[in-house]
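Example 321.
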Amino acid sequence: MSGAKKKLALTRRFPKAVEERAERDYDAQLNPDDRPLGPDGLVELSKSVDGLLIAPTDKIDAALLARLDPRCKMIATFSVGIDHLDVEAARARGITMSNTPDVLTDATAEIAMLLMLGAARRAHEGQTMLRADAWKGWTPTQLLGAQLTGRRLGIIGMGRIGQAVAKRARAFDMVIHYSNRNRLPPEREQGAAFHADPEAMLSVCDVLSFHCPASPAMHRFLDARRIELLPQGAIVVNTARGMLIDDEALIAALLAGRVAAAGLDVFTNEPNLHPGYRPLINAFLLPHMGSATIEARNAMGFRALDNLDAFFAGKTPPHAL
Ligand code: DGY
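Predicted structure in complex with (2R)-2,3-dihydroxypropanoic acid:
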């Protein structure tokens, strides 16, 4: 980039390599304490910067956009998910937004497999037994779980991450079903069974895994009525967004054993997950760490910076929304 460096604020603490590149190429303002700024902090920041590198914890809705200083013209989110952004409202105000697809696909697919295995094989119970010093030794009937081999995996949302999960699940000899807005071509489908209607797929989901965007149409998709459509003892996995699940309904189903186990990495109202999950021995829970590998988080930051660089060079960012 030529001329005076643009002013860029990073709203959270980002991986070192990402911050170093931001400082190299921009007049960068970091947030070394990782203090969430909140709406007022973001508005204040916008007065002195040309662009923002934000995180999924920064909610940029229409109300906030209306208060942002017109100086700030580009907002790059360090995420593939965009449910914290009002892209239309930003466009209307002449603000460009971008996200970071692709680079977290493998990391998220790995966490989905971890959740699937952890839920199916009762990993939380085993861990708790050991840490509470309650293990009395091996027995033939201890902590018997479900084997993934031959089980039917239903994937809702067969984009990049859904396909990466399907690939990994095939290595576990699972049978893949999926529901997606559009049917995939055969070379991508790889023999997976397509269901145009996600609800119609539920009856074959021994394991149900969410990989779709958090669209209003999918709000609390997995509710009490649809849980009844799952096979008895199904396993539910969510690495997408908490809003896809009706927490009260899933907690009731886990308590009743109607759903055998759940593996959840994302929650409604993070970090204040529904307290009903905490005591459940059949809930294997992680704190939204699907993309939390060094490789993925560096690549997400670099991709966000690529978007900012393109914008300030007068080009369309490669991942403009
Ligand atoms: C995303 O990118 O949307 C994840 O949820 C955070 O990595």
